[in-house]
Amino acid sequence: MTSVHHVEQAIGAARLLPVVVLEDAAGAEPLAAALTAGGLRSVEVTFRTDAAAEAIRIMAENPELLVGAGTVLSPAQVDAAVEAGAKFVVSPGFSPAVVERCREAGLPVYPGAATATEIHMALDAGLSIVKFFPAEQIGGAKMIKALAAPFRSVRFIPTGGVNTANLPDYLALGAVFAVGGTWMVAPDLLAAGKWDEVTRLTAEAVALVAKGGK
Ligand code: 3PG
């Protein structure tokens, strides 16, 4: 099994986590190829569509890609994610039941925590990396900076409303573990099979990370 350490290393090194909403699992294989061609090695596939489990199964067959499940809202979905081959779990909010089931399954979990109280709950649950969602709408990079001051050990995965224009603001913060979003895998690009565009946007984001977010 992929270790927690390996998962954290992979996501933390890239500092980017594309959030995929795939309506048709037929796109899973070309999408995996498009992301790796753009220089990314990890991806979150959300349980927002019926195609999610099958898409995870297909993408997880790509040995270059670390595939996680997103929008996981229940212990049953944790089980479905594990069964499909997901190597980590992301959820929009903090659910003790989801966190517990991930722990039982030995799967790293990044639950949403967007207030001081929620972050404190995540710490109590033994977690130190949380999703910060919806990032732009709840205060963006400034809010993370303020929360990181008291919660010095916590790292954030801001997601929601991030694009190439505001990405550097997040990357500039040491408390930002990785930045998530759909901008390089926008649902309309996936629906139209515009894989070259996915690769171009992915490579552009990877280059921004390499420049240190400047
Ligand atoms: C998520 O689930 O993390 C968000 O819906 C992604 O938000 P974005 O589409 O604004 O990037």
TrEMBL record:
<dbReference type="GO" id="GO:0008700">
    <property type="term" value="F:(R,S)-4-hydroxy-2-oxoglutarate aldolase activity"/>
</dbReference>
<dbReference type="InterPro" id="IPR031337">
    <property type="entry name" value="KDPG/KHG_AS_1"/>
</dbReference>
<keyword id="KW-0456">Lyase</keyword>
<keyword id="KW-0119">Carbohydrate metabolism</keyword>
<dbReference type="InterPro" id="IPR031338">
    <property type="entry name" value="KDPG/KHG_AS_2"/>
</dbReference>
<comment type="pathway">
    <text>Carbohydrate acid metabolism; 2-dehydro-3-deoxy-D-gluconate degradation; D-glyceraldehyde 3-phosphate and pyruvate from 2-dehydro-3-deoxy-D-gluconate: step 2/2.</text>
</comment>
<dbReference type="InterPro" id="IPR000887">
    <property type="entry name" value="Aldlse_KDPG_KHG"/>
</dbReference>
<keyword id="KW-0704">Schiff base</keyword>
<dbReference type="InterPro" id="IPR013785">
    <property type="entry name" value="Aldolase_TIM"/>
</dbReference>
<protein>
    <recommendedName>
        <fullName>2-dehydro-3-deoxy-phosphogluconate aldolase</fullName>
        <ecNumber>4.1.2.14</ecNumber>
    </recommendedName>
</protein>
<dbReference type="Pfam" id="PF01081">
    <property type="entry name" value="Aldolase"/>
</dbReference>
<dbReference type="GO" id="GO:0008675">
    <property type="term" value="F:2-dehydro-3-deoxy-phosphogluconate aldolase activity"/>
</dbReference>
<comment type="similarity">
    <text>Belongs to the KHG/KDPG aldolase family.</text>
</comment>
<comment type="subunit">
    <text>Homotrimer.</text>
</comment>
